[in-house]
Amino acid sequence: MPRDLPLGNGSLLVAFDQNYHIRDLYWPHVGQENHALGHPFRTGVWVDGQFRWFDDGKWQRSLKYQPETLVSDVRLEHPDLKVVIHSADMVDFHEDLFIRRMEICNLDTREREIRLFFHHDFHIAGNDIGDTAYYEPERRSIFHYKDKYWFMMNGAVATTEGEPGPGWSPAQDNYAGLVTGIHQWACGLKEIHNLQGTWRDAEDGQLEGGVVAHGSVDSTIAFNLQFKAGQMRILYYWMVIGSNFEGVTTLNRMVRQRGPQSFIDRTAAFWRLWLEVHLPEVDGLPQSVIDQYKRSLLTIRTQIDEGGAVIAANDSDISSDVRDTYSYMWSRDGALVAHALNKAGYLDLPRAFFNFCDKVHSREGYLLHKYNPDGSLASSWLPWAVDGEKHLPIQEDETSLVLWALWEHFSRYGDVSFIKPLYRSLICPLADFIAGFRDKGSGLPVPSYDLWEERLGILSWTVAATWGGLTAAAHFAEAFGETERAQNYQKAAAEIKASAETHLWQPALNRFARMVNTKEDGSWDVDGTIDASLVGLWQFGMYQPDDPKILSTMQAIREQLWVKTIVGGVARYTNDHYHQVSQDISNVPGNPWFICTLWLAEWYALTAKHPGDLKQSMELLEWVAAHAMPSGILAEQVDPFTDQPVSVSPLTWSHAAYVITVLTYLQRKKHLRA
Predict the structure, then answer these.
(1) Is the per-residue pLDDT at 139 higher than 70?
(2) pLDDT for residue 177
(3) Could you give phi then psi for residue 378, rounded to 5 degrees?
(4) Cβ contact 14:24 at 8 Å
(5) How open is the CA angle 166-169-171, to the nearest 5 degrees?
(6) Beta-bridge partners for 457
């Protein structure tokens, strides 16, 4: 199930599913630890003896964001309950604080009591062993804790009354009159002895008031509100997170003193400012593309840890398939996301990423498969032995693209003081490794695993990334006055390109091959499958986008990988089995991926010779915006028939590709008008 609304600040990440239930809650790192682990934190309504959780099928839901912010704009209406709820949820931009503001409207023509229930299914630190939940009467709140992880839940009801009237929308003013404290509570056991949890206790509208539970526990709290006919009232709920009791109670006191609305207002203002200071000239772009560009930048920010780790995706539902997640830092994804942020004008986040890579790379100069947000080595399926012999379990492009992205950063900003300490500790070790990690006969990189993590070989993508990394390293060496080192890197890059011309270019296909490998007899095994990742040959500079060899290769991608259904989009490669839904390969070579479609759009923009030629690129940018979720979130891929998101959502790389393509389009448009 996709994550329609991720909200975060670089240390706390809260993600809602399509039912408007919290499903993932990460702290103190984005992607680590997950204290929800995919278990729903339910929200429900009781009125007139009827109870409905938000996943009830009759709720009419609209899950979006307030424009240019990381504050939600959610509307729910239930015809049986005659209730409308308009919500704004946010994670404070500075404090580890999550606040929900709910405007509840009684659509009935009579007075009624409406009760709101909030359920907490914590699995603190990723498991349900040794948790404690308790009610604390002095603050009229619920606490959950284990070790260094503390969570405090509280809320307040506004005493100011209101009526919705025509065009009702969330009020923006602060409500001074607040009555703080929960009205009902229950702490209990779950997932043992056939106990489902306190959320079941809520369904009669009355919680039994259990004050403490330990082990595998959950809790539910409630607020009872009295309504006149047609009246609207406001409820605030908040969760504060910290490492000890003092930390969470201090922050709770701050919320009570300042008022929860002040945190919502300042967070909305911060994210608008964050976008505004680097917003490019977007006049002439369709509004859908402008909105998607802004949403992509904000979504990227939610997926980056303050320590520099760029997380691929934080959607724990994928773990049901492979018992693992995407909540890791692949340096390939990180480098491309950093490149997007560099192009968009953001320096601090890419710098943190490069410093992260500086800390985690091996002594030999390579980056391993993936890393946890705290810098520790993450899980991996890449083997250390192939055919009984030791083999490095790496994807070489992950090392090379860090160098490529770092040079792109430096050439744009010229921040010498930032680069200086990285030259010896990061740039030279990585460049020396990839310069030496080559076949002595052909000069091509030694076989490593591909970017899709499916095959071992010499991939065109990896070859191009290695060329880009070595060329970047040569520029750095020359800039630092090390001419001989620069020449060595340039020589290695030239040998790689010459060998690519010989072995990867296939005249019979009139395009490049996806992958080659050497056989025992010294001959070459060619994998001629058409693969969208062939775009790396021009993306990292080894070829110009309008080189004749690239033109024919890109034409093959467009013709053979376009999904011929009502959905459209570009697949990864022919007969892609990952989440495959159709065997009609001629029409559906694979599910459409956003990054692959955007690669084609980027190429269209770069090869445009006249302003009118940009139309093809814009059509694909609009296609992506149209196939995003209503909130603007981009998944990894979509179903070729239903257009529903497939695999993880959001995928950080998808949003980075959108940012890169929009900026490339704008740059090319400006160039053609000059």
Answers:
(1) yes
(2) 85
(3) -90, 175
(4) yes
(5) 120
(6) 448
